[in-house]
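Form P-L/3: holo structure prediction, ligand zinc ion.
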Amino acid sequence: MNFNLPVLAPSILAADFSRLGDQISECTDHGIQWIHCDIMDGHFVPNISFGPGMVKTVRSLTPEAFLDVHLMMENPDLFIDDFADAGADLISVHYETCPHLHRTIQNIKENGCMTGVVINPATSVDLLVPILVDVDLVLIMTVNPGFGGQAFIESSYDKIVQLTALRDQLQLSFLIEVDGGVGTKNAKKLVSKGVDVLVAGSSVFKADNIPNAITTLEKAARSGSNTVA
Ligand code: DX5
Ligand code: ZN
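OUTPUT (holo model):
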């Protein structure tokens, strides 16, 4: 699937689940093609969100959207086929929960999904070097995972620049995604540092007007495309 980068990826974690269909429609009717689904198990992260059933619901609500499923869970291998069957297009797993990361990434591929690896704020980009050739996307957490609405961690910029340099040096083409505390205040700088996909929960779904929030965020993100990092 080709996307016009940078991509804004609303995280449904922040949506009003009693009006999920309407809120997703407000996004897709306004040009959003990429939806981020935050899966939390209450073990790896101190919160529980939702499972494959919710992904299946989102897929039924938006057959066309690209569903990016972020597994914040221990033992993700146990659920990769369930999320693939539910309609995931991309499944990302945390470096910190995968002792056999290469095998897990192969498992995602064998289930027909694109692959992503995620690192927490205190995990170094260097640890990803052996797996970068095998993934379609790298997600840099810009908050400590578990909750929406947290403050952006400023040291994330250095990790983005380091990852962008590694991608160039290794002549790879994986996408760089960030997740947590993304809004109009940092979207431009994030894209200027090399971010391709911006996950935004609160700044979209907690806004008074979702379409306006999307327009403002996309404008800010695009303005970062033609600035030097
Ligand atoms: C953290 C979650 C959040 C969410 C986005 O575990 O992954 O980062 O997607 O939340 P906001 O955009 O509200 O910070
Ligand atoms: Zn996420």
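COMMENT: The two ends are 26 Å apart (CA to CA).
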